[in-house]
Amino acid sequence: MNAENKNSVVKVIGASSLGTLIEWYDFYIFGSLATIIGSKLFPSDAGASALINTLAIFAAGFIVRPFGALVFGRLGDLIGRKYTFLLTLVLMGGSTFLIGLIPSYESIGYAAPILVLILRLVQGLALGGEYGGAATYVAEHAPKGKRGFFTSWIQTTATLGLFISLGVIVMTKNMLGNDVFADWGWRVPFLLSILLVVVSIYIRMKMHESPEFSRLKSEGKVSKNPLKESFSKKENFKMVLLALFGAAMGQGVIWYTGQFYAQSFIENTCMVDFNDSRYILLWAIAFGTPFFVVFGALSDKIGRKWIMLTGMLLGVLFYRPIYQNFLDSTDYATFEKTELKSAGTPVVVSQLADNGKDSTITTTTLKTLNSGATYKEIKTQTIFADSSPAVEKVLLKEKTLDNGTFWKFVMLVFFQVLLVTMVYGPIAAFLVELFPTKIRYTSMSLPYHIGNGVFGGLVPFIATLIISYPGSTPLSGLWYPIGIAAICFIIGTIYLSNNTHKR
Questions:
Q1: Within 10 Å of residue 469's Cβ, how many Cβ atoms?
Q2: Which residues form a coiled coil (predicted)?
Q3: Is the model's pLDDT at 65 over the cut of 70?
């Protein structure tokens, strides 16, 4: 590759990656703030159902991604890659900005979650069209034998978008303080996205159409009906199904378990402090992100198949031991018997129940262990006016980790992110090489967004829902991603070819 062509490809990767990174940033702010957003969208007494309902709204954006893939994939194969994913960027940025302006439940009632749901659906449709366009665009500029390396830079954008969203959230919270952030400060990361979108639109306006699509257009060979050609022809439809069940759905659950569910589990199940849970993920992502490019480049040499399938298999084998370690390391009620160093002055609050007769006494005590870890012990005693036996509940929350445990958690999440890079780094090149140029945008987008968006995107919601059922354990939710990854590993082992990288 001469210097001029290399410089052109670098510009293509840069412009495509920046826009895609911003779209992922927009998409993931919501999930990173699910607990706070849930308290604003639903009644104050909704309890755990507020988080589940908020995760359902979050999941809705994933469910519609395949429809976005069909709509914008068709446009991309008809009118070109450039203008299609320019449109998706505008839709994503506008929706994210408007979510930051939606009034709370206290102001407009259930209209608040309904409006946010609508905007999440628009986000999902836009992202459904963005990824396929960016991956196709970069792949069609990449030199032969380098697709894995060049498209892996696009693959970094999803994780970097999550990284930036977490960083902006933590900085905003630290600058404004806990109370202000919980009140209105959570809106700031949504509103800031409009600035990033404007910059990306300016850059993308200067991009040229991909050379392969331009050649097809000049030769009059552009598909007249990409949807029909993609899904009515038996051979092509077979490749769509193989891409979904042999690669994309396993990749999806590994991605969302290793990053989103890991952070949600540490914060909501282990009750670790807000900042600690996010710093853990930030460090893990920082260590893991370069491996997208490592595994993307490696797939150019040895093939995509076994790199992706190995990542799935390791997830199946190690998820439960890792998450059991999270639980054991934050079981402060057990540690308290031998490791309690000090306890602060209890804060006691007494109030009448809604019926005006029963009363509740809440005692909050800040405790410190010998290791330096801290936590709040919250005892709630309900005293009934009819002389029924009092009910006492104890909750340990806002746990901070000692230094050793913190870095152990970072390494455990880093290992999960490493699996993400194995399954995700090579997959763009893998999907691009399965389908002919004239229907590539449509054909690759659908299996990717069903696998990644539906199977993967539902991990936080389904896993959280499973552990809410009577008789479940905190680890029960892991059976969903483990089961999907295991099925995908078996299908991929039997039916996938390892030679697509040679095309």
A1: 9
A2: none
A3: yes
Two tokens at 372? Answer: 């330096």
DSSP string, 329-354: HT-HHHHHHHHEEEE---EEEEEE-T
- Three-class DSSP category at 270: coil
Place of tokens 């498209």: 151
Give the separation between CA 26 and CA 193, rounded to whole angstroms.
7
What type of residue is 220?
G
Distance CA 240, CA 232 (A): 11
Q: Are 35 and 267 in contact (CB under 8 A)?
A: yes
SS (HEC) of 367-392: EEECCCCEEEEEEEEEECCCCCCCEE
Q: pLDDT tens across 331-358, in order?
A: 998 888 789 999 999 998 888 876 677 7
Instruction: Work out the angle at residue 431's Cα, subtended by the Cα atoms of residues 425 and 437, and round it to the nearest 5 degrees.
Output: 130
Contact 190, 96 (CB under 8 A): yes
CA distance 314 to 423: 11
Handedness of CA 126, 129, 132, 134 (dihedral sign): negative
Q: What is the pLDDT of residues 223-235, one digit of tens each?
A: 666 667 667 778 8
Expressed in angstroms, the distance from the first to the final Cα of the chain is 18
Cα–Cα dist 282/277, whole Å: 9
Predicted model pTM: 0.81
Q: Could you tell me which residues come within 8 angstroms of residue 354 by beta carbon, excluding any fewer than 6 positions away?
A: none
Please tell me whether residue 341 adopts helix, strand or coil conformation.
strand
CB neighbours of residue 222 within 10 Å: 17
Q: Which of 23, 420, 77 is nearest to 228 (CA)?
A: 77
Contact criterion met (CB below 8 Å) for 242 and 408: no
Which two three-digit tokens encode residue 464?
């959280």
CA separation for the pair 475, 412 (Å, rounded):
16
DSSP structure class, residue 272:
B
Q: Are 164 and 25 spatial neighbours (Cβ–Cβ below 8 Å)?
A: yes
Q: Which amino acid is at 75?
A: L
Q: Quote the CA–CA distance of 269 and 66 in Å, as a whole number.
A: 31
Which amino acid, 368? T
Token couple for 476 = 């029960």
SS3 of residue 364 by DSSP: strand
Contacts of 65 (CB under 8 A, 6+ apart): 124, 125, 127, 128, 449, 450, 452, 453, 454, 457
**DSSP state at residue 143:** P
Q: Which CATH superfamily is domain 3-330+402-502 in?
A: MFS general substrate transporter like domains (1.20.1250.20)
Residues facing 342 on adjacent strands:
368
